[in-house]
Amino acid sequence: MKTYELVFTQSYTRHAKRFMRKHPGLRGQYRKTLELLELNPFHPSLRLHKLKGSLDKVHSASINMSYRIALDFLVEGRTIIPIDVGPHDQVY
User: Fold this and answer.
1) How far lies 19's CA from each of 15, 54, 64, 70, 91, in Å?
2) DSSP string, 21-78
3) Among residues 39, 42, 81, 85, which is most buried (max CB within 10 A)?
């Protein structure tokens, strides 16, 4: 049972499609990350953390040790809005 809702923007969808074309081998891990975000965004394997500086309203969740999803994370509304996906240095 989902406890959070993922809401995808057109911009994020473009980023995700580009990411999947470049990294087709991560499709399963990516899908699992999104499913886990809907069930429990605080699951330890996601390594969810709040960013700092100009991105202080954004959170990050991990697909694996190299790739991240940057999120606009609205706990009150139980809504998660992905912003970007990619390598650590590209997303931030």
Assistant:
1) 6, 24, 14, 13, 11
2) HH-GGGHHHHHHHHHHHHH-TT-GGG--EE--GGGTTEEEEESSSSEEEEEEEETTTT
3) 85
What are the tokens at 25?
């081998």
The identity of residue 1, as a single letter, is M
Whether residue 62 contacts residue 46, with contact meaning beta carbons closer than 8 Å, is answered with: yes
Confidence of residue 12 (pLDDT cuts 50, 70, 90): very high
DSSP annotation of 19: H
Options 3.30.2310.20, 3.40.1190.10, 3.40.50.410, 3.90.940.10; CATH for 5-91 is 3.30.2310.20
Q: Which amino acid is at 86?
A: G
Q: How far apart are CA 7 and CA 9, in angstroms?
A: 7
pLDDT at 74 > cutoff 60: no
